[in-house]
Amino acid sequence: MFDIAPSILSADFARLADEIAAVEEGGARILHVDVMDGHFVPNITIGLPVVRSLRKATKLTLDCHLMISEPGRYAEQFVEAGADMVSVHVEADPHLHRTLASIRSGGAQAGIAINPATSLTLLEDALPFADFVLIMSVNPGFGGQAFIETSLQKVRRLRRMIEEIGAETRIEIDGGIDATNIAEVVEAGAEILVAGSAVYGTGDPSAAVRKLRELGTVWV
Ligand code: DX5
Ligand code: ZN
Prior knowledge:
Layout: E1 3-6, H1 16-25, E2 30-36, H2 48-57, E3 61-67, H3 75-81, E4 85-89, H4 96-105, E5 109-114, E6 132-136, H5 151-164, E7 170-174, H6 182-188, E8 192-195, H7 197-200, H8 205-216
Parallel strand pairs: 1-8, 2-3, 3-4, 4-5, 5-6, 6-7, 7-8
Helix pairs in contact: 1-8
Zinc ion binds at residues 7, 32, 34, 65, 174, 194.
């Protein structure tokens, strides 16, 4: 079973509660929250106070994608703020083991995010300490970018790596997912599909989630 995780980055921030209710109505169970610091990535978005408010406003699983430098300093605070899943970038953290452990000990699922040009070999020893891996299929920083095709191969390779060690790690993919590529991405082995503009860039986020779920279901 796969999940569509709508990214609120492309939502109307002044109407967040309504925007969240709409995707929930469409069948979304996970809400993707993009945290950017203007340092690790060239954009600034939202932080802890917004996550605390989201926690009060929805029962959906909150998936916080930390695109920040020194994520080890903040990961636990996102768990305390109400995140159910927290991912940190392998490129940003020389102490992944410690950071992932701190996320888990707070009771959340720990994820490793990886940029398009970063090798999966960097994850090999870290996999047992993660509940999910987030493969970036665009360069992090902005919504609405085009899907990088080689990401499909990367998902397949990661799927094999996970099977080889007998782990249960879930694969999340983020960036440029839409109706044209969702079936391929599910077929390659991704289980959590982040979609920003393909959901909130349409006039009807609820229908968009339903449609993406339907298109992805072809393969399962
Ligand atoms: C990009 C973010 C994504 C973004 C995806 O840096 O991590 O989550 O919101 O947006 P789309 O689906 O429009 O590529
Ligand atoms: Zn993201």
